Amino acid sequence: MNLEALAINAAIEAGQLLAGMQDSINPREKAPKDLVTEADVASQKKILGSIAEGRPNDYFLGEEDLTDESDLPGLDRTVGSSTDLSDLEYCWVIDPLDGTANYVHKLQTYSVSIALLSYGKPIVAAVYDPVMDDCYSASLGEGARVNGKPLKNSGVDELARSLIAASFSAGVERGSAEVDRWVEMLYECQALRRLGSAALNLCYVAQGGLDGYWATSVKIWDIAAGVLIVREAGGTITSMDGQPLKIQEAKFIAAATEKLHKQMFDVLNRP
User: Fold this and answer.
1) Which residues fall within 8 angstroms of residue 94, CB to CB, at 6 or more apart?
2) Which residues, other chains included, contact 69 with Cβ-Cβ below 8 Å and sequence gap of 6+?
3) Nearest alpha carbon to residue 110 among 119, 118, 101
4) What is the pLDDT of residues 75-90, one digit of tens each?
């Protein structure tokens, strides 16, 4: 099995597990306004079980803490978010449930995100949407796909006719830079959304459902797969300051085209 197929299978199996657990979860806060459920943990365990034994030299970075699962394959090769991934030949970056708040409230926009990084660069990606039964995937230099069919973004290059999404902290304060950016973009684009799953937002940019997306409060596991999918579908993604994306900082602007990206950059970086 090639690496993309391995990621796809693991993402689908975990997503099916999530779908089956949704009516019986007990959510709790791991931080203010940051929910976690037993489904998040079960999904991450499922993914590790699907990948770790067949990849005995790879490392793993996941959103959830599984240190109590002493018999879990690959647990001894897990690393923390502060690890410099550019030092690791292969590291799987896993978000077992991207969009937990949506999942808890039965708002059906959530996903499983799996990426394989080599020396800090995404080379394989899979994002599975259990509700729509869509699996987005990519391999470096080989294009992006959804359910095996090639992806192509919208090609839109005018902000005034663009559908844009954003991610920022749920605890954002009045008068903050995040609120200011939202208001500025609301005036300039055709319509603006905050959907709750960074991984799916990036896939929507790759697919053409969204034309652009920016984020200031996500983590590497939210975006590692989606970044590759956007790039392989012909999109543009940079850090918020317009410099090459630093994936472990996970603050970025993504757009279908370079021209649209420039317009988004100008709006989001207004004084």
Assistant:
1) 44, 47, 48, 60, 61, 62, 63, 113, 114, 221
2) 45, 75
3) 101
4) 899 999 999 999 999 9
Residue 226 dihedral angles phi and psi, to the nearest 5°: -65, -35
Cα(7)–Cα(125) distance, rounded to whole angstroms? Answer: 7
Q: Name the nearest CA neighbour of 61 among 73, 49, 76, 79.
A: 79
pLDDT digits (tens, 9 = 90+) for 26-65: 776 665 545 667 889 999 999 999 999 899 999 999 998 8
Q: What residues does each domain of the chain span?
A: 3-150, 159-268
The reported pTM is 0.95
Among 3.40.50.300, 2.40.128.20, 3.40.630.30, 3.30.540.10, what is the CATH number of 3-150?
3.30.540.10
